[in-house]
Amino acid sequence: MREISNHYPVGRALQLVVVLSAFLCFEKLLAQPPITLRPVITSNLTAPMQIVNAGDASGRIFVAERAGRIKAFQPVGTPQYSYLGTFLDFSSLVGSSGEGGLLSIVFHPGFASTGVHRGELFAFYTDINTQPNSDLILRRYRVSDPVANTPTVLSTDEILRIPHPNFSNHNGGEIHFGPDGFLYMSVGDGGGGGDPNNNAQRTVAASANDKSYLLGKMLRIDVNNTSQGRLYATPASNPFPAGAAIKNEVFDYGLRNPFRWSFDRLTGDMWIGDVGQDRWEEIDFRPAASVPGVNYGWNCYEGEATYNTSSGCNTLINFAPAYVYDGQSVIGGVFYRGTNSLLAGYYIGADYVSGNIHLVSANTTPGEGAWTTRVIPNILPNANEIGFTDIGEAENGDIYITGLRSNSVYLVASTALPVKLTAFSASKSVEGAKLKWQTAAEENFSKFEIEYASNQKKFEAIGTVYPSGNRSYEFTHAGLLSGNSYYRLKMIDQDNSFRYSGIISLQTDESAEGGFVRPSLVNSGSMNLLVEGIYHSFELVGTNGFVFHKQNISGTKGAISIPVNKITSGMYVVRLISNENVKQQKILIIN
């Protein structure tokens, strides 16, 4: 994980738009599934890190706690779970310095069988005895009875140890069994800014005892095979070293901190969330048919941006991520394969710091890239304080999210909206901001709560409106308006579940319409720029000063349409630049 400060551009004071923007593309917004998080476990957990199932047809879910305990839970009705007990406790082995702890667990595919792998599971954790820069340990446990909720440990073996001597961060990692029966393990680059030891790009050992080449990788090993004189073997189809009779553990490479990743349980495709260095978080999609030896680009590239310009990076063609965003700590998620038709076709991920949820789906619109992404902020009150650490699956395909700081587990749910919103607008009046909205259908609906924010981030409730027979509503936010105002509707069912509408923006200034980006709320995928005067270029700048787009407009006047459909939703500054001055305008992009 990492922390990034927001640095705002230095220069002239931003001139607020002299325009009233009050519209939404409802058809586009309503096409996305409404997502809610429902708490299903709120007790008997401390710092949950991961949620898994055992594939044993029991319906149980198992939650790994950071300290080194595994808790078992059983569903009791919808959607709650009851606590069954501590399945395993090996906290005496686990160190929690820095980003350490019990990182991941996985049950052997033969866990519930009558064969030789009955009762087997694996744990990936940081070693308590080598803190603070702990070794990374893969350990196997065999328990007495797979059906038991608090079984006896029959045996345990350390399968693999990876030294991690220099830093206490960038451990990775998550373990899964692949469709091929091999165990896959994501490992961070060893920590330190920029991968100072170049671990991620090395694929072979520098000496007989060197294990640092395993850092910054996706590893693949055969834990069912001891024919190579150790507790695992390396598959012959692993790619490195090239030409060697016995391959090493490296499957893919060029990863920074692949903390969370998953297999698509239907196709075997791999989705990897790789935490970025300075700003770019990335989600990598690796089709199951890909040849082993994929290089994801770190530390030559961060996301789609060049990071390292050394000679060793000059010939590398970067792996194209499915999704890149300006964030702080991506939590790789799961491609939904459950029974809820509203979620079908979506990959669901998150961000540890912001608490935002990300929906990624295949793009069916020609010319707009392979994937379409939507960001869902504020899915829960104070979502940025929960600390999402994992998105995992139950046996039936339901998806759950663990909250490290809330000590809770949430079900990712989606149900048809009890109300169909067809219009939502804002206008300025002498009393304040007048909001109007209409609905086409209302069923089992309780009320609207109107929420307001001055910065699109921290919303507060300012009023309540109850259903009316004509399905046409008004609400006035009284007071003197200045600057930007943002509004949304919290639509609450009779069972107290709720959904949010899209956000509308009311931008007010006494000088009426003077902005050169019209409208300044851009949700059509294109930004309309009106050039009046002599300017040689324009820039689209993020709130941290990063220039997303720059274009020469010398000799151009009048209207220019700029595609922004691939830009992450948020606040931006547009700069018109001439030899004498810089004209600036703040805009809101919603994609």
What are the salient characteristics of this protein?
591 residues; mainly beta; Neuraminidase; Immunoglobulin-like; five-stranded antiparallel sheet; five-stranded mixed sheet; 41 strands; globular
Description:
With 591 residues, the protein is mostly beta strands. It has three domains: 35-413, Neuraminidase, CATH 2.120.10.30; 419-508, Sandwich (Immunoglobulin-like); 521-589, Immunoglobulin-like (Sandwich). 1% of the residues lie in helices and 42% in strands. It is built from one helix and 41 strands. The strands form eleven sheets. Strands 29, 30, 32, 33 and 34 form a five-stranded antiparallel β-sheet that branches. It has a five-stranded mixed β-sheet with strand order 35-41-40-37-38, with no helix packed on it. Strand 40 (570-577) and strand 41 (582-589) form a beta hairpin. The longest helix has 5 residues, at 26-30. The protein is globular, with a radius of gyration of 26 Å.
